[in-house]
Structures are given as structure tokens and as C-alpha cells.
Design brief:
The structure is a homodimer.
Chain A (H helix, E strand, L loop, with lengths): L3 H8 L3 H9 L6 H14 L5 H8 L4 E6 L5 H15 L4 E6 L10 H6 L5 E5 L5 H5 L7 E4 L9 E4 L2 H14 L5 E4 L10 H16 L8 E2 L6 H14 L5 E4 L2 H13 L9 E5 L13 E4 L2 H16 L9 E3 L3 E3 L9
Parallel strand pairs in A: 1-2, 1-3, 3-4, 4-5, 5-11, 6-7, 6-8, 8-9, 9-10
Antiparallel strand pairs in A: 10-12
Helix pairs in contact in A: 1-2, 1-3, 2-3, 5-12, 8-9, 10-11
Chain A binds a DNA duplex through helix 2 and helix 4.
DNA sequence: CTGAAAGCGCTAACAT
DNA sequence: ATGTTAGCGCTTTCAG
């Protein structure tokens, strides 16, 4: 590996001059500059960013930590963050938090954070206790539907309101028994499933319809294949089900398949609403009615908060934001009651 | 930021002892060990990996460079690579190559590679000339459907054979006019679209059916929304079309939507086959027949090649592998002719 | 405008 | 079993 010293020797100058040419931090005379660049080209030199970063004390890149790579939502998230962060002249690198291991935030992965100037951390499988281990680390903004320690900036979706809207919509359009696929009751941890189940409850209360807890379909994994199987089984066991709220679009898409398997027509027999408003939902059949969580809003705010926290005088108080949500009506729900 | 020196002072030992306790490289007496760990805990110390990596000369992580985050295929790729690389005790970080900028491989992003022990590089928008700029850099394995300089290890999909299989299948099942959505004729660059169009041609030749070049639907972007619009327009303009080969599953899924928009039944009026065998394809309606490119095989080989290249005596010759492909038959094609 | 010395935080190699 | 010295490759500071 060529080093700056070798370039300096080849060009007959000091390392400092090479450094200055490459970083542009100080003026260098055109001639020496030319000699240096020529040596750089001949030796095929490239700066060692590890060394530079050690000296600088920063790296120019920010990390996005997601629980899974192979999930449409996190892919979209990454793309949005990259776009927002490019304007700041920084690079995004995405790492997968080796999801839900006993020590998800192992000592090592915690130390890795120091290699970045800041991090956006999508917390899913993380317990609050583990989050508390992150102390005087780098600037961090949390994303995700979990309860987090108050000292962190945090942006989350309007889970309760979104779920309420989704279920209200189906009840308005004539559904009586709305299954919540991937729902979950109970206190701790107050995660996404629980929050959205709360919205499901609220919609029932507001509509004056008793919420039947048997309609809460707990799921081990919130993926398409599981949802398909379990929703098909659920409607077979309870033929009265005439609406399904999937706690994510993946679950809702699986539900559509499961209902097909069970011989139910959507939206005539059963209405379906999802949550996330993934692009694919607009292009399948029937097109999926979904809750749009304002992902752009979420990312813009996360980047703004991160930028503030990385600035010279970071805010003393952490912000906790909840994104606005809206229902995007498509073919998986009926036009009228 | 706490440093190792501070920990050493707090524990009343030398920095070397702290280093030894934390890295486990040398034996340390239980008592001092305990004192050190206590100081580490009290000061909330974490090693500076930038410094450690500079000293070590390696980073323990490998990079996966993809053109886009928000694409199901690259998400799945990332997940597979992470799994395969975890066994080697290494971390994967994913970066987005700021796709198709004039200087996609800017000097800086090239330099960034040095921060990793190796890289798997999914080349899509990259010209061969740009790839040639990567010289005595770190070990690299290329992925993707493009022609690459021979000195690189390269794993690609069986594009021609896969496309041939897809189109042969539709011709066997009675299609006469098979549109290739996202196809492209011409020499340079020999990219994915071109290779798959070659397979489309081959299938026609083998079946003794003349290939009508009007059935090659070029697309600016290979995404669902574009495919939907352009396929709908294509079948409106040419009602004789009775088969669509989408060069990717995204394109095929868009084609399904476009055909629906145009009032065509799949598979009765028009058969559809995609390429990638994304998970979602098995769960939409109609279920998408697709070419499985053996993604696991691709990733396993890429990781194997990378490992070999990172080893003490790297192979002198580069390998160029083509993945086996197979047709996965589902509901978007007919059971018989 | 250019150079020499010092040091970012850590660990390999050599003491003790 | 622990400590001291030197240096990874770069840039900041201080001189010229």
C-alpha cells in the first residue's frame, strides 16, 4: 500500500506538501502542486482514511443501523437517509444490528459507533435497558415504535392514530369483525404491535362496537409468509371475520394471499388495510389500502435532529416527535358501507 | 471521549495492560484485570476502533457496495452477505454507490474502500473504464450482469439461459408474441437487459419462431411504476401480445398491473414471467412465474472468492462464475399449451 | 509558500 | 505479569 511519504519522496517534497495538495487546506505553488499530483498518479496513491480520520477526530460518515436489510421498509429508509445526508456532504453507511441476539448491542458494535460522526438507529428488537448502555457516545437519533430513554432524540410513526384511522375506515365501510393481524395486548415492551392494537381498540370504542380480544392475532414473525398462513387459519376458524388490519404492509399483503387461499373476496367479503404504504401496495391486486406514515417527514426530521446534535452547541433537551399519518384509500377496502 | 490512557491512570496501570485486558492478547493477573475492568466501567470507556484499525492495518469489516438501497434484490443480497460473512467473524457494512453520477467512483469513494478488508461490489451503472480505475486496492469481488475487466473475480447470474428458459416456457405454453419488457438490443455496454434480450432471441430461434424486434420494449427505468405504464401502452398498441417477459420481477409485477389496467387476463390472455424470484412474487395474484437466479449460490461464491483473495496467498487467476438458473412455475403462466 | 516536529489512540516488539 | 519505546499514516502547530 503506497503511503504519503513515498509520494513525497517521489515528488521531492515533504509529506506536508503532499497533504496540502490533497486536502487543499493550504496554498501550494502550481509547479510543486503539479509534481505532487503526477507522483500521486504514477504511484496510484490514495489517502488512508483511517489515518486521516484518527487525526481529524471525525470520519465524515454517519451510520444507519437497521435490524434487517431484507425488508422493503428499511431499504426505503436507507435511500431516504442517503438522499437527505448527501446534501450535508456526508456518506451514509448501513449496518445491520445482528437483530435480537441476547446482546444486540454487544460491546463491539457499540464501539463501532465511534467510527461515525453520528448515527440514526432504527430500534426494533431493542430493550430500553440495552439502549441505556449507550452513554456519552456519538450523536444518535432513534427511530422506531418503541419506548426509549428520554435523553435520546426520537422520531416515531403515529402508530395509535394510524391504526385508529385504518380500523375506523373499515368499520365505517361496514366491517363488523376486524381482525388485527400481528396485534398484541399487554404492557411491556410498548412496541409497535401494542401501539397499533391500542389504535384498533380506540376505533372500536369510538364506534361503540365492542372489541373482541379473540380478533387479536398474535404473530411470531411479521412477514408475508407467516401472515398468509395464519390469516387463512384465522378466517377458517372464525368465518365471521369481515375485515383485516395488518399491522404492517407485509402482513397485509400476506393477509390478502391468505384470504384468497381461504376463498374470501377482497373487498366484498373482507376488507384489508395495511400500515407503511409501501410502493408495491399500489401495484398488486387488489390494490392495498394503507396508512401512510410520512416516511419522508420522519427521515427529514431525524436528519435535522442529528445535524443539530452534531453541531457545535447541541440542544440540551431531546426531542420526541410523532409523524403525521393519513389513510391512502385503494381497492382493498370498499367505497361505501 | 475517554481514552485508554485515562483508564490506565484510573486503574493505576500502564496503557499496555489495559490494552491486554481488552483485547485478551496477553495474560493479565485476575486482580489487575478486575481493577482495569472496573475503571473501564466507571469511565464508560470504549476502544477507539479507528486507532486500533490504523495500528492493526485491517478493520474486520467488509463492504457491500450496491447501486440502490431501496430495491428488494439488494436488500436480500445484503441479508445473505451478512449471514455468510458473520461466520467469518466479520461485519458487513453497506454503502450506496451514488449511482450513475458522472464520477460514480469518485476519488473519495475509492479511498473509502481502504477502510475495509474487502469489498463485494454490485456493479450496475458502472462502465468498464471506471472499474479499471480500481487498481491495487483491497480485495474485491464483483457482482452483476455487466462485462468486467478480466482481472476481477466476478459472479453473475445465468442471464441468457434464464431468459431463454422464461421465453421458451411461454412459447411452449402457447404464446406467440412475447414482449420483453425492459429489453434492449445493441452491443455496448453488454448489460443485463442486453443479455436477457439475447436469451429471448435464442428461445425464438430454437422454437423456430421469428423474433419481432418490435416486441423489445426498452425502458428508461426498470421499476414497477414505469413497467406498469409502458406495458399497458404496449398491449394497447399491439393487441396481439400474448406473453410478457419482464427482465426483472419488478418489471414483471408492473407488467401484471399494466395488463390488468388494459383489461387483459393473466395467464389466460397473456402469460407473464419475471426474473429474480423475489419472495413477494409467490404471494401476489396471480402468483408470478419467475427465473430463480440462485442468489444463495451467488453470495456463497462471492464470499468464498473474497475470502480466498483476502487470504495469505491469494489466487493468481481471477474466477468468472455464472450462476445456475431454474424456472419456478406459478400462476402467471398456463399449465398447458 | 514549504518544512520539521509532535501527536491523534492504539498495539507489536522488546524490556524488566 | 507488567512496563517502555516506537510507530501505524496522517495533519496540526510552529518555524523558516
Amino acid at each position: 500500500m503506497t503511503t504519503m511519504t513515498e509520494v513525497a519522496q517521489a515528488a521531492g517534497v515533504s509529506v506536508m506538501t503532499v497533504s496540502n495538495v490533497l486536502s487543499g487546506r493550504r496554498r501550494v505553488s502550481p509547479e510543486t502542486r503539479k509534481r505532487v499530483l503526477q507522483a500521486v498518479a504514477e504511484l496510484d496513491y490514495q489517502v488512508n482514511l483511517t489515518a486521516r480520520n484518527l487525526r481529524y477526530g471525525r470520519s465524515g460518515s454517519i451510520a444507519l443501523l437497521v435490524p434487517q436489510f431484507d425488508h422493503a421498509y428499511f431499504g426505503a429508509l436507507g435511500a431516504r437517509v442517503a438522499r437527505a445526508v448527501a446534501d450535508l456532504g456526508r456518506q451514509v453507511v448501513v449496518e445491520q444490528t445482528t437483530a435480537s441476539q441476547e446482546g444486540e448491542l454487544s460491546a463491539l458494535s457499540l464501539a463501532r459507533l465511534h467510527m461515525y460522526d453520528g448515527a440514526i438507529f432504527s430500534v426494533v428488537g431493542l430493550r430500553e435497558a440495552e439502549l441505556d448502555k449507550i452513554r456519552d457516545s456519538i450523536p444518535i437519533v432513534l427511530l422506531g415504535e418503541r419506548e426509549v430513554p428520554a435523553r435520546f432524540d426520537h422520531v416515531m410513526m403515529g402508530n395509535i392514530e394510524g391504526a385508529r384511522l385504518a380500523v375506523e375506515h373499515m368499520l365505517n365501510r361496514g366491517s363488523q369483525r376486524v381482525l388485527i393481524a400481528g396485534g398484541r395486548l399487554g404492557q411491556d415492551p410498548l412496541g409497535m404491535s401494542r401501539a397499533r392494537t391500542l389504535g384498533w381498540l380506540t376505533a372500536h370504542n369510538e364506534a361503540g362496537i365492542p372489541a373482541d380480544e379473540n380478533l387479536i392475532l398474535r404473530m411470531g414473525q411479521l412477514d408475508i409468509a407467516h401472515a398468509r398462513r395464519e390469516v387463512a387459519a384465522a378466517v377458517a376458524a372464525d368465518p365471521g371475520i369481515d375485515g383485516v388490519f395488518g399491522v404492517t404492509d407485509d402482513v397485509a399483503i400476506g393477509a390478502l394471499a391468505g384470504l384468497r387461499d381461504a376463498g374470501r373476496q377482497v373487498p366484498e367479503d373482507v376488507q384489508v388495510v395495511g400500515f407503511d404504504n409501501l410502493e408495491i401496495g399500489a401495484h398488486i391486486h387488489p390494490e392495498l389500502t394503507s396508512i401512510d406514515p410520512s416516511s419522508d417527514w420522519i427521515v427529514d426530521n431525524a436528519v435535522r435532529l442529528l445535524q443539530a446534535r452534531m453541531s457545535d452547541d447541541p440542544p440540551s433537551e431531546a426531542e420526541h416527535l410523532v409523524s403525521p399519518v393519513r389513510l391512502v384509500e385503494r381497492g382493498s377496502t370498499r367505497r361505501d358501507g
